[in-house]
Amino acid sequence: MAKKVLIIGGGASGMAAAYTAARCGASVTLIDKKEQLGKKLASTGNGMCNFTNARIEASDYHTHHPEFMKRFVSRFSTQDALRFFRDLSILYTERDGYYYPANFQAQSVVSALTDSLKNLGVQVILKCNAENVEKKGAVFAVRTSQGTMAADAVILACGSEASVKDLYAFSAGRILKHLGIPAYPIYPSLTYLSGRPGDSDFEPVWAGVRVQADVSYRREDPLRPGTFRTYTEHGQLQLTETGISGIPVFQLSHTVIEDLEKGRDASVVIDFLPEFPEETLRAFFRNIRENEQRQADRPNPLTAGTLLGRWVPKKLSAVILRRTGVPASLPVHSLADADFERVLKALKAFRYVIGGHGSLQEAQAAQGGVDLSAVSDRFEVLDLPGLFITGELLDVDGPCGGYNLHFAWGSGIIAGAQAAGVEAYR
Ligand SMILES: Cc1cc2nc3c(=O)[nH]c(=O)nc-3n(C[C@H](O)[C@H](O)[C@H](O)COP(=O)(O)OP(=O)(O)OC[C@H]3O[C@@H](n4cnc5c(N)ncnc54)[C@H](O)[C@@H]3O)c2cc1C
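That is the input. Now the predicted structure with flavin-adenine dinucleotide docked in place:
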């Protein structure tokens, strides 16, 4: 008789699990608390669904068990994710290593998955919130808002609370607690960072500016005190009313937030002109100043404010001058070397003290979650055979670039096959 597999959560990993389990011959039921499947999936990659990356490495992921991710990545590669998409008849394309469906429409990925589930005979039950899971002998009993359901195997694919705003309180945490499954505390990741109140009041001045910048974060290795590592991310930096945002900030946010949550001080260093070495800018400035000194008595000399506004966006130049105490009206011909060095430092190494961050509801991912030492490489709970946990519910999160969806597909596919009694992806 076909194995009865019940999957809780119809997001990326739950749908991948349902698809695989059904293809492996199981009788599959997929429940979701929402009114449709794949709601978060439909919003990924700004609605374009960046579903995997050409360079997936274990070291790209954050987890307390990096050796688990080494085994995962060797089992489920970029090629495996691409094969899954080909199986779904999705044409895909690559941009700088990031993979997207060729039509850049996340909704079409959701449709391909839901159509396939229908064709495979998966029973989908919507607006159905799982409240509790219990194992009675060899069978699982899942209490839901639509009654109790029985299954031979259960896959918990409830994702995280990141970016979720809905009626039901997130019950996965309670389910895990009730089952005694260990988990690390949950914090946001892939979100904005805000300045420390009292340290800065200039954010309203720079709000709205977007610049290509390098953002660096130096931290002490928590496992090796006295050893420091600097993380640098390049990309479009967004300066906001309260702080900093954009891809380079998102990429650093896991580490910065982890430190803030542990009560450590955190500040980032921003290079607003990463293409230009200090020596180049210094020589350029001296040239301009010499020129200005030759015509110092002209009626409208070039001022520090005007010059800097030609190097970086005007609003940002105002913040730089404010920080360095150089008056915007100061003629460049009388700008002393020491003053210019302060301006240069603010342009190339602007220290920004972080005091806060986006909430879970504002974040694209969650850090923390189920301790990977509680599950096998096939995502089966060691103490509760037949129960599987996949996707973002686990203590794994990756950077922007398709890493989180890659993990969702891989964990769902491996668990789905195993739950159906087939060992796939050796
Ligand atoms: C705005 C945004 C953009 C993103 N863009 C990208 C991107 O481009 N590339 C990338 O790799 N990652 C991206 N991510 C991250 C990615 O979407 C997630 O990591 C991924 O969806 C996790 O898959 P999952 O199956 O674990 O959880 P989800 O996809 O969140 O699915 C969980 C499902 O479980 C359901 N559920 C939860 N609890 C219950 C319950 N008790 N009973 C029944 N149902 C329940 C939920 O309704 C949901 O449908 C983005 C995230 C956000 C928020």
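The mean pLDDT is 96.
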